[in-house]
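I hope you will forgive my troubling you with a question about protein structure. Here, with my thanks, is the record as I have it:
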Amino acid sequence: MSKTSSDNLPIDIQLNGLEVHPDKKNALLVEVAWEVANQVGGIYTVIRSKVPSMKANWDDRYLLIGPSVHPNVNTIFEDLEPGDDEYGRAVVKMRSMGFEVRYGEWLTAGRPKVVLFNPWSVSDRLGEIKYLLWEHHHISIPSDDDLSSQVVAFGWLVKVFLTRLTEPDVNERPVIAHIHEWMAGTAIPEIRRDRLPIHTVFTTHATMLGRYLAMNDPMFNDHLPYYDWEAEARKFNIETRVKIERAAAHGAHIFTTVSDVTSFECECLIGRKPEMILPNGINVDRFQVDHEIQNQHQKNKDLIHQFITGHFFQSYFFDLDKTLYLFTSGRYEYRNKGYDLTLEALARLNWRLKQHNVDVTVVMFFVTKKPFQSINPQVMESRATLNTIRQTTEVIQKQFGDRLLTHMYSSESGRVPDELSGFIDDNLKIKLRRTVQSWKTHQLPYIVTHNLWDDGTDEVLGFLRSANLLNHKSDKVKVVYHPDFISATSPLFRMDYDDFVRGCHLGVFPSYYEPWGYTPLECMVSGVPAITSDLAGFGDYMSGAIPDFEKIGLYLVNRRYKSFDESANQLADQLFDFVKKSRADRIAQRYQLADASERFDWKTLTNHYEAAYNEVLAATSL
């Protein structure tokens, strides 16, 4: 198709060979997700980062629907008066019926129009809503399951809104409803039951049951075709949620998922093979810094240096110019996220670096979210004392500089004096010495930066203790376990997560269960090499999309047909080879990765979404 400038829509989109449906230019697109303006997990990143590309393709025909439940929703949402368009008329009509409906803009790039529903605003009708769900679809909602109660109330409100949107006095255009995950899915079976003229697309990013099974069955991938989904759902007490997911998947006109990895999982656990794959992209412009990738790395690495100085140098010193920063991050799922494999590989790497006497220190950061009581007081005290040391040295530097400058001005000979000690006050020397002496300790640097509630049973700490990987001076591999997400408000790092990523040398994400995996993609667009696995959606997609991916700094751990020991050895080999790389080679990889990241930009990958919308219009007779 050629680009048509008159309607300002980029319709030169490749639709996988499909003939573009005539209704597509005129249709309305409503995208529904529990994580619209409500950050819970990775789907929030998918929806939010995709907005600019969706707005470019659909302009004012694009609407997002989410729940008004986040405590900070008012900081990212601006209420507006509904206009005299289809969405505005539907909002007004719902309000006239007595419903609480918020209409406005999400304060994010693209500023999309958004409708928010408060699930508890219909709590007086919750009994009726649950009854209809059971009567129509045989899905029961336990009275003590607050989340499922919120979800079904939200889904019911979505269905009411979409019903209004299809009424002749509100709208005469075709409507596409793209609904994500089980938490927004209850609208779909009701839409189909009432035969509403709505073209439905449902996307599951990870099956409910798959996540639970993978966490509990080390042979999950081998056993996948043989599970009894109903029995397993009852065992994990998630039967209601699984049934909602299945009803949405089977009720949608087009069923999609994010990778071939999850497609097979859907086929086995949901009982329907997705018709299309919608890989997740990222807004590359948000991360890429023109031609200053290495400068940004150096700047942010210096901030990490400050943390390392306070955390380790109280106990012993190592050369920061010969130190590499590795990290892993994400939801705390010890097996699913590959933390177990990463720890085993680190222990083997530590031994290998010692055996080969490699003059490099590796600091590995585990950044995740775990319940904690507080930041470790000793860690905070060390930081505070280090700040005092730094401030004292700055005073000394200024005093020395001022006095030396005065001496040079007044000296007739212009010679620099041989003895410079007189340029610094004795009280400053004593203060600096005493502060440093009080700061130094023979205690090993702490592994974990916070006081965990489950310190004695935490799996990461348990492995490190059993492997004696406890930040000894002789260890070539040091570990920092940070059980909270990094942000500019963090008193330990004082930097945003994106900047932390840029300051590191390698991301390590050898997941056992990962439907897609944004973390290695975030590394890629930041110019940071990364390791993923063939069981992660991104790793599987990457292996087919990027030839010679290892040359540019993307590494794949084979886990599908390998034992844990084989995969741990492979990962240890990859880490060892990376440590031995020259600085010039690492810099070259940074630029190659940033260049290659363009193929994962939403500007490219939204084409898959456009193909799904075209397909649902072409394939659905309403």
